[in-house]
Structure to design on (99 residues):
């Protein structure tokens, strides 16, 4: 569990990140979970955009994705969510060494 200070630091780091994954009308699939899992392992902090045609509420989708990938929702603004999960193999390799 992250402290509020750590969350604030991660929100700051996420400002400059592009959304690397988009969720559309297909919703949550095994392939999507695998992509997010791989991205979290490689980067630790990722931004996901929910497209207009996403069937469900972005807040609910963010929670479901966080649970399925064992990550934490750092921030959600509109249809964009930021997820964080410490790397299992090489913690800090995503540029977040001091958490």
């Amino acid at each position: 569990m992250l402290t509020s200070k750590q969350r604030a630091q991660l929100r700051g780091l996420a400002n400059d990140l592009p959304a690397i994954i988009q969720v559309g009308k297909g919703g949550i699939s095994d392939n999507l979970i695998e992509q997010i899992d791989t991205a979290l392992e490689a980067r630790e902090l990722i931004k996901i955009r929910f497209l207009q045609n996403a069937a469900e509420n972005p807040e609910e989708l963010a929670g479901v994705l966080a649970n399925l990938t064992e990550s934490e929702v750092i921030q959600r603004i509109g249809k964009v969510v930021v997820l964080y999960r410490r790397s299992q193999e090489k913690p800090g390799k995503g540029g977040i060494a001091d958490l």
In short: The domain at 4-84 is CATH 3.30.110.60 (Translation Initiation Factor IF3). Residues 73 and 83 are 5 Å apart (CA to CA).
